[in-house]
Amino acid sequence: MERENIACGVWFDAVKDEKFKGNRISVNFITELDEETVSGNAIVPFVLKRGKSFTELNRSLDEMYGADLYAEASAFGKYQTLTLEIIGIGDKYALNGEKLSEECAKLLDKLIFEPNITDGEFGKLDVELEKNNLINAIEAEINDKRAYALGRCAEIMFKGEPYGIKKCGVTQKALEITPKSAAEAYYRIIDKADIEILFLGSGDADGVKSVFEKRFKNMKRDPINIDFSSRKAPDRPVIEQKETMDINQGKLVMAFRTNDSDTREKRMAIQLMNAMFGATPFSKLFVNVREKESLCYYCVSRFDRKTNVMTVDSGIEFGNFEKAKDGIKKQLEDMKNGVFGDEDITQAKLYMQNAYKTVEDSLGGIEGWRLSQILCGGNETPLKSAEDIVKVSREDIIKAARSFELDTVYFLKGTEAERDADE
C-alpha cells in the first residue's frame, strides 16, 4: 500500500494486486458534516456523474470495455465523503493494448473538473432529476424502521454535534437545492475538501497518478485538515426517549459510550469484546437475549471508533421493552465481570481473523478498509490486524467492557402499545 501527497490536500493511494482482473479508481472528497451544506454537497457527485452528454459518456464507457461509473455520498464520524468512481477491466486484458487504467482516470478527471456548468449553474434538468432522487433516498429511510431507529438514536445522542447529521441531510434542505446552489457547493468542495484518490487493482497506478498530478499541478486550494481523533463523550445521565409509529414490531436502540480507546491495543480489545458481546452468531446477545430468553427477533451490537460508541439495536414485542433493555444490560455486566470462557475468546478471535482476512478478497473491501484507515489516521493492513487480534488477553477484554457506560436509549413503539397503555 503506497500513499503519496501529490498536491495541496490531495493524496494518491495505490494498492496493487495482480490477483484482480479489474481496476477500481475513486476520487473521494472529504468535507465536514454541516446541517446547512450536507444536502447540497450530497447531490454534487450524482450531478457530476451525468456528465455533459449522456450519449458521449456512454460511448466512452463502452469503448473502455463496458466500464461502470458510480457516485456516492456517505458519512464517517464528523465527515461527509463524496465519491465518484469507475470500475473497469485490467490493462493486460485490453485487446489492442489500450492503457485502460489511464483512460478511466482521464474520464473521471473530465467528469469532475469539466462539469456541465454554464453561467454559474448546473444544468436544470440534471439538478431536478438528482434532487428528486436525493429526496426519495432521504424519505425512504422511514420505510426501513430499523435504519430509522438507529438514525433517531444518533440524532438524540449527538444533538448539537456533527456526528448525528445524516449523510444526505433532511428533506427540507434538499428541497432548497437549485442549479446555482449546487454549482456553489461544487466549487466549495473543489476548494475546501481533502481529496483522497484511490487506485486498486492490477493496472498501471503510475499512469493514473500522472493524470491527477497534471490536473492539480497549478490548482490553488484551501483544503481542510482531517482531525484523526475520536469523539470524547460527555459524562452525563442516561437519555431515554420513546416515539410512536404505526408499526408491528418495536425497535429498541441502546448506545453505550467509552473514552478509553486512545491506543490501537485498546481498540483491538474493544473489537474483540464487541464480537463476543453482540456482533456474532455465538455472541452473548444472540445466545441469551434472543435464543434462550426469546426477548427479541434480532439483537446486534456494533462499535464505531470515530464516535467511541457501541450501539445495540433489536426488534422486540412492544411489551418486552423493559425486559429486553435489562437483558442487554445484564449481558454487558457479565462481560465486565468476566462471565465467559476461554472457548468464547478463541471462537471470537477466529471469527475476527476471518473477517480481517476476507477484506482483501474484493476491491470494494480493500477500498472501504483504506478509506477508514485514512480517516482514522492509520496505515494498518487487514493481515496485521488479523495477527494482532490474537494478542488480546482476557484481562484486556474485561477492561474494554468495563469502559462502556449506557448513554442513550431509544424505543420506537407502535400505536397498539399506546392503546394498551391507555386501557
What does it look like?
This protein is α+β, with helices and mostly antiparallel strands and 423 residues long. It folds into two domains: 2-216, 2-Layer Sandwich (Cytochrome Bc1 Complex, Chain A, domain 1), CATH 3.30.830.10; 239-422, 2-Layer Sandwich (Cytochrome Bc1 Complex, Chain A, domain 1). It is 46% helix and 23% strand. It has helices spanning 38-50, 54-63, 100-113, 124-140, 145-157, 171-175, 179-192, 205-216, 264-279, 284-292, 321-336, 342-358, 363-376, 382-388, 394-402, 415-422; strands at residues 2-7, 10-16, 22-32, 68-76, 79-89, 117-118, 121-122, 194-201, 239-245, 250-257, 298-304, 309-316, 405-414. The protein has a six-stranded mixed sheet with strand order 1-2-8-3-5-4, sandwiched between helices. A five-stranded mixed sheet has the order 9-13-10-12-11, sandwiched between helices. Strand 11 and strand 12 (309-316) form a beta hairpin. Helix 9 (264-279) packs across helix 15 (394-402) and helix 12 (342-358) packs antiparallel against helix 14. The protein is globular, with a radius of gyration of 23 Å.
Key terms:
about 425 residues; alpha+beta; Cytochrome Bc1 Complex, Chain A, domain 1; six-stranded mixed beta sheet; five-stranded mixed beta sheet
